[in-house]
Amino acid sequence: MKIKQLVHKKLSLAIIAVIVVAGLVGWEYTGTAEFCSLCHIVKPYYESWRSGQYLDHRHALKGVTCDDCHVEPGKPRVLEIGKYMKEGVNYVTGNYPIPLPEANLTKEYCLQCHGTYSELAQKSSNVKPNPHMHHLGEIQCTLCHKSHKPFVNHCSECHEWAFQKQGTTSAGLEDIRLPERNLIGLLLASILPACLVTVILTDRKDQP
Predict the structure, then answer these.
(1) What pTM did the predictor assign?
(2) 68, 82, 144, 148: which sits with the fewest CB atoms below 10 Å from its CB?
């Protein structure tokens, strides 16, 4: 009888371990660009990021993924679960606009990876006039830089000239400083399975 109970206990622990590992692997997969592309409304953005001609692909070549721009740098992704669930419901119910709205990224958000405005001005010093040194001061990056769309010459709204060396919108990506990946989200994602393991073991310990 004891052997049977021991085998049953080890089998239960093995199943729990598989569930925990599968849960952690699954959680990590949900943070990849490939997972985002499973929704057909996101797939065009994924294709642009993977092999397109816009700034998103330039970022992809540097290892920047969806979460690096769509989740606040340094913020555990697990804290975005509520937003993900809402997006999932909107997708299933068809409650979404086409095209999808642009991410509302602030200048400070972008500069966490790209450095200060002064540093950007040095990197783009070969462009005439220098787009990062002008009378408007430190304007929002997204006025000119679009991830999934063509570059916009914001200066042309008033001035009738173009940048002499435009070519690509990847200026400043050479020394990009990606936010460090933290394990907080991974640890938080393991809390539920860990609780499940504790409950099961406690329950078995209390059995006569």
Answers:
(1) 0.64
(2) 82
Amino acid 158 reads C
Eight-state DSSP code of residue 136: T
Q: What are phi and psi of 94, to 5 degrees?
A: 75, 15
Neighbours of 64 (CB within 10 A): 21
End-to-end alpha-carbon separation of the chain, Å? 13
Residue whose structure tokens are 């709204």? 157
The stretch 53-64 carries a mean pLDDT of: 90
Please give the pLDDT value at position 194: 54
Per-residue pLDDT of 28-47, as tens digits, reads: 777 788 888 888 888 899 99
- How far apart CA 132 and CA 122 sit, in angstroms, is 8
Structural domain spans, the chain: 31-177
* Residues of the chain by 3-state class (helix, strand, coil), percent to 5: 55, 0, 45
CA distance 58 to 110: 15
Architecture of domain 31-177: Orthogonal Bundle (1.10)
Q: Which residue has the higher pLDDT, 169 or 149?
A: 149
